[in-house]
Design goal:
By secondary structure, the chain is an alpha/beta fold. Helices cover 33% and strands 19% of the residues. It contains 18 helices and 24 strands. Helix 1 runs parallel beside helix 15 (435-455) and helix 15 (435-455) packs parallel to helix 17 (510-522). The longest helix is centred in the C-terminal third of the chain and has 21 residues, at 435-455. It is globular. InterPro entries: FAD-binding_Monooxygenases, FAD/NAD-bd_sf, Flavin_mOase-like.
Length: 542
């Protein structure tokens, strides 16, 4: 077994997380670093999700890094929200400006990473069998990255074009085609709205109806852009010191503290302004906490669906009958799509897909839908999906599959017990927010922790099992106090058959999370188990 070190650190993934980790570790800590990605370019989410309509639901000026102030001033803000291809271009620009690609190996899936207890080294193996050793591993694998392909009998026999939105190829044409879409989550809503005008016929195969509000993706005026750029420091400060980091005025007003009439006015204003997180968290403080408040929000959106959708039967089908407590959706005219003559909605909850054959989809009631193209907008094996797909082994050969057999866990979302010197960006039980500011928070904490370890001759740093358990309990307690935990979605692992339905996020907000991480750093990582090198132990003994 190789016992000399190839790199100080190996980074897996080159989305927002991996790129920043590479920049910090290589340019600030001056480490020898190599990053790998199975994609053939940087961008992560935005490399893979090139489906029509891909759009952020974070406002453009906050869906970027805060650390490169020059790029913030250069940021091209066209509309309130940013199109997928523009985020990809932004990340490519970051990589070019900081010369990051020279230390990235693309088209390289990391198949395995094993910790060697004897030498305190990670052995990282690519799918082509190359093995590299490193002292630290930074996993920036993405939380919405491992595609969830629906397990439907016969799907492999389909002879038409078959796509998953998160593996979207270039140059797909819809003209003259009969297209089916499975899935009506955030992605389904976007792709359906974008392609409806382009296809010959669109059949939407809906299992769960969704609450969605308009996104309000207006063009940005030069004055509005100038105001943002003049106030960026304050904007980032406020975002990082808020719960969701979406740049909202997070409401402190309970919904029932105002009259019904006032509530309607506030909801209507939010509907006109647009934005999913704005609707859920800027209107009232307790939509995700109080059943009464939640029902008020549900009823408002239900009323809008009935107003927009002309056919009452279709409107009924589009109306959810569960809580408004998933990641809040927003759209560019989704419900209106169902007024088009070329769009049909099928309820595959009550009339499930029985099987798929070479020509299309057969529903349980015997109806056969002939298709030229089938799009799976069926989401992701979120949060731990990419970890469980790897042969990842920590101390004494403990596999991540065994370690997380009761559901994934972490200490502070950046480390997990028995996996020394492995640091996760967006590991399980991390903050549920606009993600770039959370990613930055974690990468900065990781970089500080590595810096501390290097300065103090610490050879291993790892989470303590009891602390990890406590963090899971904290996350569970917070989640239990919300309505999110009572709604079935990927946020709690409920979207994947057989997946552990447990807590996957810290719903305590970014501000509080940052304070916890800052406390760990200020306390010189006493909450971690550290292993000193022989040299430093000898020095201490003297
Ligand atoms: P990713 O961007 O997912 O990058 C992970 C990378 O790791 C990928 O490139 C992948 O190829 C690579 N990788 C994984 N496993 C391996 C392996 N074994 N070997 C080699 N490479 C590997 N978040 C928001 O905050 N706001 C939004 O508006 C928003 N919109 C979204 C819209 C869509 C359609 C999706 C799917 C997600 C959205 N997100 C949004 C979440 C988004 O994933 C994050 O904002 C952010 O891009 C995550 O960056 P990351 O670097 O952590 O992970
Ligand atoms: P989601 O939100 O998990 O949505 C997936 C959709 O696919 C949802 O409507 C599912 O219905 C549906 N689905 C999944 N499997 C099936 C099968 N087998 N049959 C029928 N329908 C199915 O994923 P998205 O990609 O839309 O969004 C994930 C996040 O990425 C999003 O929040 C943004 O942050 C970006 P279900 O609801 O399970 O009944």
């Amino acid at each position: 077994m190789k016992n000399q070190m190839d790199f100080d650190a190996v980074i897996i993934g080159t989305g927002f997380g991996g790129l920043y980790a590479l920049k910090k570790l290589r340019d600030e800590l001056k480490l020898k670093v190599k990053a790998f990605d199975k994609a053939d370019d940087v961008g992560g989410t935005w490399f893979w999700n090139k489906y029509p309509g891909a759009l952020s639901d974070t406002e453009t000026h906050l869906y970027c890094y805060s650390w490169d102030k020059e790029l913030l001033q250069d940021l091209e803000i066209k509309t309130k929200y940013v199109q997928g291809p523009d985020t990809l271009k932004y990340l490519q620009k970051v990589a070019a400006k900081h010369d990051l690609k020279k230390d990235i190996q693309f088209n390289t899936a990391i198949e395995a990473a094993h910790f060697d207890d004897e030498n305190n080294l990670w052995h990282v193996r690519t799918e082509t069998g190359e093995v590299y050793t490193a002292r630290f591993v930074i996993s920036a694998l993405g939380i919405l990255s491992a595609p969830n392909f629906p397990r439907i009998e016969g799907i492999k026999d389909f002879k038409g074009e078959l796509y998953h939105t998160s593996r979207w190829p270039e140059n797909v044409s819809f003209e003259g085609k009969r297209v089916g879409v499975i899935g009506t989550g955030s992605t389904g809503v976007q792709v359906i709205t974008a392609i409806a005008p382009q296809v010959k016929h669109l059949t939407v195969l809906q299992r769960s109806a969704q609450y969605s509000v308009p996104i309000g993706n207006d063009p940005m005026t030069p004055e509005a852009i100038a105001k943002i750029k003049d106030n960026y420091d304050q904007i980032w400060h406020d975002a990082k010191n808020s719960a969701f980091a979406f740049g909202l005025n997070e409401s402190t007003t309970p919904a029932m503290s105002v009259s019904e009439q006032e509530r309607e006015v506030i909801f209507e204003k939010a509907w006109q302004t647009g934005g999913g997180f704005r609707f859920m968290f800027e209107t009232f403080s307790d939509i995700a906490l109080s059943m009464e408040a939640n029902i008020a929000a549900q009823n408002f959106i239900k009323k809008k669906i009935r107003e927009i959708v002309k056919d009452p039967k279709t409107a009924d089908l589009l109306t959810p009958n569960d809580l408004y407590a998933k990641r809040p959706l927003c759209d560019s005219g989704y419900y209106n799509v169902f007024n088009r003559d070329n769009v049909t909605l099928k309820d595959v909850k009550n009339n499930p897909i029985q099987h798929i054959n070479e020509n299309g989809v057969l529903l349980e009631d015997g109806e056969f839908i002939e298709l030229d193209m089938l799009i799976c907008a069926t989401g992701f094996d979120a949060v731990d999906g990419n970890y469980l797909r790897m042969d990842l082994k920590g101390r004494n050969g403990l596999s991540i599959q065994d370690h997380w057999k009761d559901g994934p866990s972490s200490y502070l979302a950046v480390t997990t017990a028995n996996f020394p010197n492995m640091f996760m960006v967006l590991g399980p039980n991390g903050p549920f927010t606009n993600l770039p500011p959370s990613i930055e928070t974690q990468v900065e904490w990781i970089s500080d922790a590595l810096g501390y370890a290097l300065e103090n001759d610490i050879k291993t740093i790892e989470a303590v099992k009891e602390k990890e358990q406590q963090w899971s309990e904290t996350c569970q307690e917070i989640a239990d106090a919300t309505l999110f935990s009572k709604s079935e979605s990927w946020i709690f692992g409920a979207n994947i058959p057989g997946k552990k339905n447990t807590v996957y996020f810290y719903l305590g907000g970014l501000k509080n999370y940052r304070e916890v991480l800052a406390g760990s750093k200020a306390g010189k990582y006493v909450d971690f188990k550290v292993g000193y090198s022989v040299k430093s132990l000898e020095q201490a003994a003297c």
